[in-house]
Recover the amino acids of this structure.
């Protein structure tokens, strides 16, 4: 085993050592120029006309000069990239590229920075990749230039930046020289966020109220534990914290934070058949995930509620917590990488849910196939028949494959079916954004000075 | 000047030069120089119209129509003169070029125009290889390098604009000097394609850019020279022009009949007739000490002021003798319509370019080309170093020829005898040589005659030679030679006139003699009888006063001698090592020195080896182990091991260098880590507001001071007061702790620095 590890390491070292970080590529103009030069040379040699040979000799200069001058152009240049930590699908992706020219005199001319953003999991993101390119026309010596690239963001998923290519065709455009620098980074593209409609508000309210319009009962134990206080007449004996009371010599009770909102559990069934997946099925799956993401975003705007996200699959998954920015990022990240599955059922997901959720929470079940929720609930080992039936009172089942989500969520691009166009949702997740998002930010060039003592 | 204006004007100038190269040496019509003028004017018009506003360019259908008309014109030219196909093609190239110039141009159109220019230059070098064409070609080549570099920049900016679909924006520059900040914004949208490059490349023409252009030009010249000199050549002569139109000039005075005074027409012409390299029999270069006489034609019959040549002899040149001192003349004769070949008498051997060699006239020992081909020719003449020896293979003078060589017009006999007799009274009749020299001296050194190029006639009723002898007593070499030849004949000495060249301009730089038309000369050869070996002996006489002639020759041209030396040298290089570069010169210039170097090195190493081998043999010879354990053994083993280690390290260094060269470095040695970069940015930002760190202050102390400064700056800078401390912490971690910063830290630092920058600016505003 150890020897195999050594061999692998050696092999990798060989590959890294031998893989060139600078490449020379002939462009079409260069190939044609070279062929014309060969023709001149052949004519001159064949006909023994000295002036043609002289023209051919002079014509060789640009070819050779291109090889050396292009290497000179790329010396003492440093390029770096600044990316956001996340971006929502459908929103513009903004990347900052900085080129630093450490040469004292010679300006960097006509340089192109090429980047490559590739998905980590193609089953999630498909083959969508982004290749940002920025053009630095002229960066004087001892100067730093910054350029902003903005383009459409790719589909949801995790992406990685691997290498940055600095490309020049200096000085004659015959040959292209590329320098590859390793600038690894990762970017998570969250699912697209839409606007929840009034109908959704209505359905949600309906699911959280009894038929008499009252909230479903919650035991006090479902309230958030907040701290300890002195016993007051009227407090339940069950709230007494005996250990602290014994220590202090007087009764002390637990104090609970009153939850205003009922817990919400979003259960997803991202089902796709094993073979012959239609584009409509994929689209409905994506819409389902976008719907879930939008709900998470709206829910986490306000604190005081617990939110749970569950999903079926070979192994059902659950993420939960009090609604907060931190939880939102966790849930959105999970949704970003959520993979479709042909296995798993809602019944196994119910088995994985915490008891409190099964008892109290409003369940929003979104599936990509027709399901019988009662049957699934009854099949669950954790739920008895009555409990399963009781669950139905708090559950809202939506079949994405049947286009039941179109009334509940709209996107800015979609034509609104009944209501006026929704306003652009506010996607601020935290008090401070990832970095200052300026519109129409101009290119900036900052000069650096060398020689200052540090 | 904006980038686009500079680029376009350079481009049109390059095209004008290409057309000029093609047209400058065309002599068969008077309109050839109109083409470069048309290109220049069209270029100027295109620059101020279509290049600024593509909408005013020629519409495509009109351009297509004009192209068809051009094809028609070309066909018409060809039908009028089928031999001038090259000229018709050249004109067609110009028509196409003019049409393209007034169209809105894409990068593909620009490439097409460059190719058209190249084709015109190639046509130009096909037509002529004169030094004028060469100079224009070089100028075109250097300008093309410049234009291609600008074209590449222009094309890249256009390409990126079209790919990105958005116009390029001008960057914002900040001049970072302490205490002064100047910001220039220019975010205006470009109005046209042209202004895209103007914005992008503002400030392009700085000294480093020009210097890098010069470096590329120098590399091009060097590489071009190496390729040109090293490319293998066939044969001893270079193929010259293949154009249908000869550019040969007429060499007056070297025809089969020459009017007296005709030679004088070219005595004021400074153009070069031939360039001569002189070597002795050991191939050493020699510099002529006296003015050499380059023999061309002989004229023997005189009648009414005209000289006529004799018929041709039918003997051939015998094999050259071996072991005699010789002068070898490598002659490059410029294009002329005359078949005459020049050389120093007596000529032992002559080698030309054609298979059969030049034709020999055994009657007078002159040579002619067997056919007149366009362009200059190279030939080699080997002459005896003793100019008084007879010409091998020259026919003897029989009675008939003798009478012909003594014939003078009847009306001249008596006057000439009257002049000659007093001069020859004291000299015995059998001493022909002395008699001839006396007559020569009468014209040359008596002082009675002077040299002039003016052709004045005093008495038109008499023969011009008699008029010269009796009345004018001044004239140029033709008169002097004619007079002497006739005087000699009147004294019973057979004589003939010789037309050729005398002397030349010696160039010390190139070690070559340039013979010009102004060096044309006439002299006389007098027959003195047969040598003991039976060969006809001719004595060369030059009756023209040498000093006066030399002064007259030097007056022609009017160029100072130093400048003439340089221009002749350039011309020599051009003629012999560019246009006339052949296999023989290549051997001499390139391969023979290399071979010599290799031979010398080999012999040197062999000598070294011979001297070292015995030493090494003794040193490394150990009869047994006991001998090895000795001082000598220690020395040998130590040296061997040391060499082994050095070899190993050298190999390892070489492999690393090769790997690094092959892979290229992705991280420059001088690159800075992020922490240091941020720190640098902080110090520069704070320096603008007078906050500099003195050398005695640590970075931490500086950060604290900066924090106090920012805290006291009011609301605008309070919020960013913690930035210096953050940056310095990161700096310490990187610089001294050799740690790296995580992505989050980098992002945070960058954004905080941005906040600091904007706060300081806001405060300043």
């Amino acid at each position: 085993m150890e020897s195999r590890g050594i061999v692998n390491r050696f092999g990798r070292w060989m590959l890294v050592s031998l893989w060139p970080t600078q490449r020379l590529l002939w462009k079409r103009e260069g190939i044609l120029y070279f062929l014309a030069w060969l023709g001149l040379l052949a004519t001159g040699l064949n006909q023994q006309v000295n002036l043609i040979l002289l023209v051919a000799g002079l014509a060789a200069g640009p070819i050779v000069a291109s090889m050396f001058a292009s290497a000179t152009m790329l010396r003492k240049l440093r390029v770096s990239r600044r990316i956001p930590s996340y971006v929502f699908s459908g929103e513009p992706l903004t990347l900052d590229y900085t080129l630093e020219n450490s040469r004292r005199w010679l300006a960097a001319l006509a340089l192109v920075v090429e980047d490559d953003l590739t998905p980590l999991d193609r089953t999630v993101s498909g083959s969508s990749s982004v290749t940002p390119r920025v053009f630095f026309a002229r960066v004087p010596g001892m100067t730093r230039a910054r350029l902003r690239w903005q383009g459409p963001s790719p589909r949801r998923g995790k992406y990685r930046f691997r290498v940055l290519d600095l490309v020049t065709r200096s000085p004659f455009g015959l040959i292209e020289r590329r320098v590859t620098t390793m600038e690894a980074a990762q970017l998570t593209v969250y699912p697209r966020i839409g606007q929840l409609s009034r109908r959704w508000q209505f359905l949600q309210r309906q699911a959280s109220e009894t038929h008499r319009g009252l909230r479903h009962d919650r035991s006090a134990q479902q309230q958030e534990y907040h701290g300890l206080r002195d016993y007051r007449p009227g407090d339940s004996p069950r709230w007494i914290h005996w250990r602290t009371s014994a220590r202090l010599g007087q009764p002390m009770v637990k104090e609970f934070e009153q939850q205003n909102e009922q817990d919400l559990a979003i259960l997803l069934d991202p089902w796709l058949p094993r073979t012959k997946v239609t584009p409509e099925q994929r689209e409905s799956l994506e819409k389902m995930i976008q719907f879930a993401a939008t709900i998470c975003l709206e829910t986490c705007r306000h604190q005081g509620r617990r939110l749970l996200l569950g999903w079926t699959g070979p192994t059902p998954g659950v993420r939960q917590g009090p609604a907060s920015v931190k939880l939102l990022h966790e849930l959105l990240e999970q949704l970003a990488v959520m993979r479709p599955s042909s296995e798993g059922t809602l019944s196994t997901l119910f088995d994985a849910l915490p008891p409190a959720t099964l008892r109290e929470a409003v369940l929003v079940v979104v599936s990509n196939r027709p399901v019988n929720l009662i049957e699934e609930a009854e099949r669950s080992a954790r739920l008895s028949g009555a409990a399963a039936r009781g669950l139905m009172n708090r559950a809202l089942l939506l079949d994405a494959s049947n286009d039941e989500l179109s009334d509940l969520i709209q996107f800015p691009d979609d034509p609104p079916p009944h209501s006026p166009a929704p306003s652009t949702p506010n996607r601020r997740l935290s008090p401070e954004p990832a970095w200052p998002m300026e519109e129409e930010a101009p290119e900036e060039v900052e000069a650096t000075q060398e020689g200052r003592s540090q | 000047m904006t980038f686009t204006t500079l680029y376009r004007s350079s481009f049109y100038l390059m095209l004008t030069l290409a057309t000029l190269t093609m047209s400058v040496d065309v002599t068969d019509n008077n309109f050839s120089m109109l083409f470069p003028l048309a290109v220049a004017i069209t270029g100027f018009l295109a620059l101020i119209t279509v290049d600024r506003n593509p909408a005013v360019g020629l519409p495509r259908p009109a351009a297509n129509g004009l192209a068809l008309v051009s094809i028609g014109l070309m066909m018409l030219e060809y039908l009028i003169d089928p031999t001038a196909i090259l000229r018709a093609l050249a004109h067609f190239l110009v028509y196409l070029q003019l049409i393209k110039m007034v169209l809105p141009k894409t990068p593909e159109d620009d490439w097409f125009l460059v190719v058209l220019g190249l084709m015109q230059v190639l046509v130009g070098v096909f037509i002529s290889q004169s030094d004028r064409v060469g100079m224009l070609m070089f100028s075109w080549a250097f300008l093309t390098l410049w234009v291609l570099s600008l074209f590449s920049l222009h094309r890249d900016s256009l390409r990126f604009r079209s790919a990105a679909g958005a116009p390029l924006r001008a960057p914002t520059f900040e001049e970072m000097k302490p205490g002064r900040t100047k910001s220039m914004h220019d975010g205006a949208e470009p109005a046209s394609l042209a202004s895209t490059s103007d914005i992008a490349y503002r400030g392009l023409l700085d000294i480093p850019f020009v210097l890098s252009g010069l470096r590329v030009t120098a590399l091009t010249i060097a590489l071009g020279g190496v390729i040109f000199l090293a490319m293998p050549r066939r044969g001893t002569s270079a193929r010259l022009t293949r154009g249908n139109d000869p550019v040969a000039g007429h060499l007056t005075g070297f025809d089969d009949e020459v009017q007296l005074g005709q030679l004088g027409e070219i005595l004021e012409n400074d153009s070069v007739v031939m360039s001569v390299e002189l070597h002795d029999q050991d191939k050493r270069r020699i510099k002529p000490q006296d003015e050499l006489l380059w023999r061309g034609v002989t004229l023997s019959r005189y009648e009414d002021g005209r000289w006529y040549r004799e018929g041709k002899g039918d003997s051939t040149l015998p094999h050259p003798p071996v072991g005699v001192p010789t002068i070898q003349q490598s002659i490059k004769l410029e294009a002329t319509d005359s078949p005459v070949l020049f050389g120093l008498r007596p000529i032992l051997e002559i080698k030309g370019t054609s298979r059969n060699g030049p034709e020999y006239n055994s009657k007078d020992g002159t040579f002619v080309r067997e056919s007149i081909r366009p362009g200059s020719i190279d030939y080699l003449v080997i002459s005896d170093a003793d100019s008084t020896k007879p010409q091998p293979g020259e026919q003897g003078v029989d009675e008939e020829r003798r009478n012909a060589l003594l014939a003078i017009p009847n009306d001249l006999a008596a006057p000439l005898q009257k002049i000659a007799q007093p001069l020859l009274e004291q000299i015995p009749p059998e001493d022909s040589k002395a008699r001839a020299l006396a007559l020569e001296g009468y014209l040359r050194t008596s002082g009675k005659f002077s040299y002039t190029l003016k052709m004045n006639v005093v008495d038109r009723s008499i023969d011009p030679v008699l008029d010269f002898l009796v009345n004018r007593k001044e004239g140029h070499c033709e008169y002097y030679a004619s007079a002497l030849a006739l005087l000699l004949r009147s004294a019973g000495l057979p004589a003939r006139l010789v037309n050729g060249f005398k002397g030349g301009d010696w160039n010390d730089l190139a070690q070559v003699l340039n013979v010009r038309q102004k060096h044309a000369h006439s002299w006389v050869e007098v027959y003195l009888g047969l040598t003991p070996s039976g060969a006809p002996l001719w004595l060369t006489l030059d009756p023209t006063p040498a000093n006066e002639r030399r002064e007259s020759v030097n007056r022609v041209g009017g160029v100072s001698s130093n400048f003439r030396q340089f221009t002749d040298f350039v011309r020599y290089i051009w003629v012999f090592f560019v246009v006339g570069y052949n296999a023989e010169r290549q051997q001499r210039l390139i391969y023979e020195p290399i071979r010599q170097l290799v031979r010398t090195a080999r012999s040197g190493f062999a000598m070294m080896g011979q001297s070292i081998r015995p030493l090494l043999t003794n040193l490394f010879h150990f009869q047994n182990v006991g001998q090895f354990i000795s001082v000598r053994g220690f020395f040998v083993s130590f040296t061997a091991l040391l060499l082994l280690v050095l070899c190993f390290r050298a190999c390892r260094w070489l492999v690393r260098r090769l790997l690094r060269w092959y892979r290229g470095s992705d991280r420059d040695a001088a690159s800075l880590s992020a922490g240091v970069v941020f720190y640098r940015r902080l110090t520069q930002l704070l320096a603008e507001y007078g906050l500099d760190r003195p050398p005695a202050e640590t970075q931490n102390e500086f950060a604290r001071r900066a924090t106090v400064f920012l805290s006291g700056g009011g609301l605008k800078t309070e919020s960013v007061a913690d930035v210096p401390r953050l940056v310095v912490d990161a700096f310490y971690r990187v610089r001294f702790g050799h740690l790296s910063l995580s992505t989050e830290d980098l992002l945070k630092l960058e954004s905080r620095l941005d906040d600091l920058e904007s706060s300081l600016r806001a405060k300043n505003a």
About this structure: Residues 166-194, 241-247, 666-672 of chain B have pLDDT under 50 and may be disordered.
